[in-house]
């Protein structure tokens, strides 16, 4: 199965993913951003603002996840922001066609907490600004994200607890 952690940049997806793999022994993180990094080296791809705009990225994420699960089994935890509904639908449909159970979570926090997390994160200033610049895209995506994902409000909740909430939802018999 796949546990997909969606949400805006700086919401805590990667930290939560790390906690989840500690709770679910057969789980491992698949960082689908590396598929985008790989594609950046391909000549003649059009210039885009975000590698998710390349159709091969979406197809390769589905195929790579499918191959990994077929080879390793278990659970893939994918901490990846997807804010374009069309892209999400393409990924979800591809995973469904591959017969892979998918649990989609929206890691969400209130605006003040989110801005505080971004501004106090240890990443370089340029990365913090990039995250802040993408907040309007996230706000615009919230209506469809709220329909497509189970929302987990992380406001004032430590990452360990967020991971426990998700693990209980996905694997209730283990709680």
UniProtKB/TrEMBL annotation:
Q: What is the lineage of its organism?
A: Bacteria, Bacillati, Actinomycetota, Actinomycetes, Streptosporangiales
Q: Which domain of life is it from?
A: Bacteria
Protein name from the UniProt record: ATP-binding protein
* Family matches, as SUPFAM superfamilies: P-loop containing nucleoside triphosphate hydrolases
């Amino acid at each position: 199965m796949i546990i997909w952690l969606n949400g805006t940049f700086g919401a805590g997806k990667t930290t939560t993913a790390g906690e989840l793999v500690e709770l679910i022994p057969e789980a491992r993180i698949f960082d689908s951003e590396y598929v985008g990094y790989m594609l950046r080296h391909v000549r003649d791809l059009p210039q885009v603002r975000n590698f998710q705009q390349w159709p091969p990225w979406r197809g390769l994420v589905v195929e790579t996840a499918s191959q990994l699960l077929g080879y390793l089994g278990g659970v893939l935890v994918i901490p990846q922001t997807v804010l374009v509904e069309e892209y999400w639908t393409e990924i979800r449909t591809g995973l469904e066609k591959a017969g892979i159970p998918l649990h989609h979570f929206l890691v969400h926090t209130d605006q003040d907490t989110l801005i505080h997390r971004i501004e106090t994160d240890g990443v370089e200033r340029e990365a913090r600004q990039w995250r802040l610049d993408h907040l309007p895209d996230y706000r615009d995506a919230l209506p469809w994200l709220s329909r497509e994902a189970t929302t987990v409000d992380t406001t004032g909740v430590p990452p360990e607890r967020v991971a426990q909430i998700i693990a209980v939802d996905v694997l209730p018999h283990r709680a």
